[in-house]
Amino acid sequence: MKQKSSFEPHLAIKRFTLLPGREWNFHPETWSFVQVTAGVGYWLHPRTNHDLETGSVLVLSENARGMLRASQLGELHLHFFEVRPERLSGLVTFGEQRFLQDLAAQDQFTVRYFPPRALLSEKFKQLCEHVNDSTFCFRWHLLDVFAQAFGEHLANRTNHDDALTDARARLLKMLGDLPASDLLDLDFTELVRQMGCTPRHLSRVFREVVGTSFREKQAQVRLSRAQELLATTQSKVVEVALESGYQSLSLFNLMFKRRFGVSPARYREQARKPRPTNASKSALRILRA
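Given the sequence above, the corresponding structure tokens read:
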């Protein structure tokens, strides 16, 4: 099935300003961290409203639906960044990805408010002073903010599948401990041996647990890695293919175009082309109003 070929960077701070009394319908596509760096505003939603003072932070899931409004007294200056756990395949396990997806659907995690003096807010404020930084260390610090928001919940997560069959329980445990990128090094025959069941049974259990076949999941991880490398590095396409687990450049080109609808080279060109963010599009609408 063909997927979107557009690429939205994450782990990068963006800035946005709302004029006095103006509103921004903010509909995040993944985990989003928004800090008020100057001014006063409000997060408005029929069930959850927050007064936003300078330094306060909102952590929003993809299910958050609400509106940011600037006070009538002055402009509201915002800094925000996104974290997409599915792109952190070398750091985040399948179990942690699934756990974060479950959290995103829970009301208590849809919108979370952190006051200015919270440790997370203080850390975010320091990073906003280096908004144009794109180094590895800077991205690592943004991940640290993410960890402060969810680290305790991830550390205390429990497996509620004790009553499952042995093979399924073993698979769940393995996926819960395995960084997603390590799936590329797994051979299905070896996985069958580790799970202690037949290939047919493991195929059925894997699809039930993950939602797709073993081969398809490997392909998703490979192409997700390739997508990130094409958009964020200067590596040649053939190097990206090898790094993503493809020994054949022609096969890589075929699989990439089948999933995203464009060639890897064309995708890189589109990903690096400057284009307005949702915030800047909203700003254009405001200016035209």
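Residues 159-164, 277-289 have pLDDT under 50 and may be disordered. Try to locate this feature in the token string yourself.
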